[in-house]
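Suppose you are handed a protein chain with no further information: no name, no annotation, nothing but its sequence. What can you learn? This example shows the usual starting point.
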Amino acid sequence: MKIEVNNSDIRLDVFLSETLDVSRSSVSKMIKNGEVLVNGKAVKGGYMISEDDIIEVNHEEELNDVLPEQMDLDIVYEDDDVIVVNKANGLVVHPAAGNFHGTLVNCLMYHSKLSDVNVQFRPGIVHRIDAYTTGLLMVAKNNKAHEFLAKQLADKTTYRKYIALVWGVINNDTGTIDAPIGRSKADRKKMAIDADGKDAVTHFKVLKRFKNASLIELKLETGRTHQIRVHMDYIGHPVVNDPVYGHRKLIDETGQCLHAKELGFVHPKTGKYMQFDSALPDEFLNILKQFEEE
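A reasonable first move is to predict its three-dimensional structure. Written in structure tokens, the prediction is:
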């Protein structure tokens, strides 16, 4: 498994422990057993990583636990190269250390053969959304398709539109948030605005205003971890029902009101542009109704 480095000047063992959500002792054991390589070489746990580093983890015992599982799957489109899936609320996209079952990848592995560009833990996964963010994801069924779709993401030519319900009334009809995002220094499981982080740009448009909230659409230029949630919190309008960002009262346990509604990309084989739409899930609609009735 190759791991994206989204921070620098942090010990390798600390970074892996936080990223994989496993104990430091488990990480230390993997490093000592030669199961962790940085730029193709074995290093010590105290190695200070940088954003240019390529980290590979090959932990065979855990990899064997990633198995196909039959679950409900909402497929919006499928052919020999691509699957577009509408991810349900609460569904984790791919396995990680300590969580190898019940993910979208487990389900996709049962349904179809997938690309192996991302090696063991993320077969087929070209991009991700959070467990409690719902909506559209593109999945690659072979490596050629995967590389083609991934390049579109890197070149910022994919179309992604989200719908979110955020706290507070946004006065401006439109806006752009251009603020770099990196790993939070106060809480390593969170992301934060950081001058040394990666560029992140989010465009938003107000669709409807309520007494205490705003319904907005968002378009992404970049795809940083938790980007919309961090950016909206940064401007004082955190996503409603977000259990991590914003420190606001939770309405229920269904997670943030954030939905990946539209997705567009050029097909890797036909070269034709394709665009898909998805309806807001019941969890989102139930909370939205409460604000509409205020």
